[in-house]
Amino acid sequence: MQRRHLLISLTTTLLPATMHAAEPGRAPLVQTLSTPGELPLLLTVPHDGEAFIGLPPARTRGTVLRDLGTRPLAEQTALALARLTGGQRPALVVALAHRRYVDVNRSEAEGTESDDAVPAWRSYHAEVAAQVADLRKRFPNGALMVDVHGQGQVPDTIFRGTRNGQTARALIKRLGPVALQGPHSLTGELAARGYTVAPLMQDTLSAEDPRFSGGHTVATYGSHQPEGIDAIQLEFGSALRQRQARLPDDLAAALLAFMRYAGYLPANVSARQRSSPGRLTA
Ligand SMILES: [Zn+2]
């Protein structure tokens, strides 16, 4: 079978990055974009890939649509974080293969339906696992992963998914459920900036919407796992991704405020942050 390759633009302001390629003869040029960072934060983008990875058969089960706009959202949020911190960025891992061929937020068995799709799945998880291990080593007091998704069912709402607190077990153990759902939680900081979040803010843990309560990635790398870190899935509504130009700046500010409150950020980053001209107030 003749294989076609789609040229992928790898131009990014976040370089240097690791381009995780497939083994020779297995089609894809590049499957995962992985960029190291300085902050105790990893942003992952599983569902905004547009590459055809050598055209394996399309998946016949599960969702095959992209979470459009989540890659630029994560990349712009990373740039905004750098602006707010004097140049410190989050790590970033982006799946480049189209979800039609591989879903990296499912198990390998569920997310791939042909052998040709397996290298793309493994490439993504090798990079995520490596970044998580690196964060654990550099930030023994805790680090955060945010898995960035989009949903179209409730266009103005941001859903949190932690498997009802399970994937942020270390955070909850340290500060209580208020850290996941109170006014200084990540969704609390987003709510303070005018966004509708679900579950609603309160000090006790309430049930997450079962449609968006956390997929394979947060379940694999969350802090309930021996080698995990606190992991929060965020599902951004389609109207927010299409029309809310402030979203990356607001997300970056919310992330910084939350990371400072939750103790992920070392003191020197907090000091720089307070002296920066960003939108944050102490
Ligand atoms: Zn998604």
Explain this structure to me?
It contains ten helices and eight strands. The protein is of the alpha/beta class and 282 residues long. The protein has one domain (18-263): Zn-dependent exopeptidases (Aminopeptidase, 3-Layer(aba) Sandwich), CATH 3.40.630. The chain has an eight-stranded mixed sheet with strand order 1-2-4-3-5-8-6-7, sandwiched between helices. Mean pLDDT is 86; it is low at 1-16, 21-28 and 269-282.
Overview features:
10 helices; binds zinc ion; disordered N terminus; 8 strands; 282 residues; 8-stranded mixed sheet; N-formylglutamate amidohydrolase; alpha/beta; N-FG_amidohydro; Aminopeptidase; globular; signal; disordered C terminus
